[in-house]
Amino acid sequence: MIDYTRHLQELIKSHFQKYQEILVLLGARQVGKTTLLKRCFPDAFFISVDNEPVKQNLERYDSAVYRQMLPENIDKIVIDEIHLLSNPGRVAKIIFDQIPGIKLIITGSSSFQIKNRTSESLAGRKIDYFLFPLTFSEILYQKGIEADLNFRIWDNIISGKGEEIVHNFDLQGLLENVLVFGQYPSLLNNPGDEKYLLNLVDSVIFKDLLELKTIGNRSAALNLLRLLAYQIGSLVNVTELAGRLGIDAVTVRRYLAIFEQSFVIFPLSPFTSRKRDEIGKMNKYYFYDLGLRNALIDNFKPMNSREDYGFLFENFIISEVLKINSYASLGLKMNFWRTKQGSEIDLVITDRAGDIRAIEIKTGKSRPNVAFLNRYPRAKIVGVSLKNFY
Questions:
Q1: Total structural domains in the chain?
Q2: pTM of whole model > 0.85?
């Protein structure tokens, strides 16, 4: 039996011991938000906005109507998929301000809409949490391979030893499955389910966005994502993308922002001290989930027959660090570094103390980047490979 424990679980469970503010849980569709909240708050009253009569009642914006919807002796309410409301912030504000004694929890799969529509009305009334597709540690724990959840990938980066680590399970086999099929929770029960991922592309990427009329040109948006899928780890030139797609650069930037805020892709910006030959403007883009990325280009070939192995592994490590940074509240700044001459560091991490770690991500062994060390002699170079990442 799968244990669905997540890194965020204890933090979510203890929220109302520390705060009175609304608990806002954000993340893409199907990452396990509802499952997590049911584990954390089994006695809460769940309200699904997917239910049309419920949605109509909520959109009356009347506290008396809301009270009638609630059973007696309920002190916690979960409003699921609140982004589907025309004004989610107003609903949450009425409940928070006008129904005393209620602890409010809301979920949404489109942070774009929630942040846009709640930033003013819920100012000072909410605390945001983010749930991502499973971490590698969560997969191993839920499969019963590991006895506890950990942040070992980050611990190995911190240690910087670079030694090969021997495990008593098929680490490479599990990794290769993740690189092809991704880390959505449903795949634990249905490994290698290509049909699920192909359907997920439509629901995750377009269902909310089309309903909310945030994307006007579906074809161009899909092609934009496909172009990004083919160029993981490459510099993204917005003007060039606009020309290839036949749309203007403003629209490309808007679509990129929507996909970022809907947890499909995330950017890495350049690390630079403004030296003349350092790249300082163009971002790189990575996917929160590689299964979704592979579904976009309909490529589920095994790793031994792919040319993008290195790029997938790079995306995997960077996305794992991003998740750990969020879950453990590490406060890390994440960038990449590249010069016009082509010298490059995949991931540059700056911690709260200002210490810099330059992470070179390679499927094989890597050599320390002398050019980076010459410019940033206090930095620590760490090599992450298939042999030592976990």
A1: 2
A2: yes
